[in-house]
Amino acid sequence: MQTRRLGNSDLYVSEIGFGCMSLGTDKDRAKRMLHEAQDNGVNFFDTADLYDQGRNEELVGEAFAGRRSEVLIATKVGNRFEPGVQGWTWDPSPTYIRSAVEQSLRRLRTDYIDLYQLHGGTMADPFEDIVDTLEDLQTRGYIRAYGISSIRPNVILRYLTASNISSVMMQYSLLDRRPAEWFDDIAAHGVSVIARGPLARGLLSGATTGKKLAADETYLDKTAAEVALVQSAVEDLTTPERSASQVSIQYALYPEVVATTIPGASTPAQLLENINAASAAQLTETDIDALNAKSPASQYAQHRS
Fold first, then answer.
1. Is residue 51 part of a domain?
2. Are 38 and 58 in contact (CB under 8 A)?
3. 69, 114, 128, 220 — which has fewest CB within 10 A?
4. Which of 161, 159, 156, 163 is nearest to 183 (CA)?
């Protein structure tokens, strides 16, 4: 598994990471999946304090308690929850961030977090105070780097121009090409993209195992017929040596600004198929052009100023 540098940080992340939200809450199963991923070359594991109200972080922490120096752990902050109470509220205040990082460190069984990400963001947030807090946590060694997880162009541009973020996590796939509009800006600031959702909720996983939309359903701004056209284009590039899922993952990894993509997996077979996208026959520029021709890029309609 090759690695790519995350922004200007000293973190080198595996091209295929593991999106841990899909782990569930069974400890033994989660441990097996996480160890299987690491044993097959994955070093980047992304979780969040919100997932299962901290349980996801606990499972990651337990799995890697004896392997901490071998992996890079990313988590997120900003969605405040009360244990046992359904729902959450947005709280990016410095006071909450400082409290939340302590809780994440405890659940993850570690004294540092490799990548700490603001789990959202609005233009109404106390921007300077947030950045100062994250910078202080980095200086004090609680975190090694920080980033944001956001699809809001105005928030992304704000952090690009006035902070030292290393990464922007964005939903990016052949069915959601909206982030591509901002890739040049992100790259120009020495920041990397973490591509989540490369399989578009299973719609890009293949004719046999992938999902299909009903005739009256949509995915974002695409009709069922338009989604089917994209699915067909992916199938056209599958071979005995490269599955539809692997085509889709490679598509998300193709832009240079993307450091890693983090598909989730609910079974060991899915996990290995995702990981093997890194070694499968690579897509060419011609392949990428053919895929793009079947899925015209859209733009974010909101949060642009």
1. yes
2. no
3. 69
4. 156
In the numeric block, which tokens belong to residue 229?
Answer: 């056209």
Which tens digits make up the pLDDT trace of 178-220?
Answer: 999 999 999 999 999 999 999 999 999 987 777 889 999 999 9
Structural contact between residues 209 and 274, judged by C-beta atoms closer than 8 angstroms? no
What's the pTM? 0.95
Task: Tell me the one-letter amino acid at 197.
Answer: G
Q: What is the CATH number of the domain that holds 218?
A: 3.20.20.100
User: DSSP string covering 162-207, please?
Assistant: HS---EEEEE-BTTB-GGGGGHHHHHHTT-EEEEE-TTGGGTTS-T
The domain containing residue 87 runs over which residues? 3-294
Q: What is the pLDDT of residues 33-92, one digit of tens each?
A: 999 999 999 999 999 999 888 899 999 999 999 999 999 999 999 988 888 888 889 999
pLDDT tens figures, 229-270: 999 999 999 999 999 999 999 999 999 999 999 998 888 999
**Residues 53 and 297 sit within 8 Å (Cβ to Cβ):** no
Is there a catalytic annotation at residue 172? no
* 131 within domain boundaries: yes
Compute CA 97 distance to the chain's CA centroid, rounded to the nearest angstrom.
20
Q: What's the number of CA atoms in the CB half-sphere (13 Å) around residue 278?
A: 22
Cα angle 54, 275, 63 (rounded to 5 degrees) comes to 35
Q: Is residue 46 part of a domain?
A: yes
Question: How many structural domains are present in the chain?
Answer: 1
Residue 299 included in any domain: no
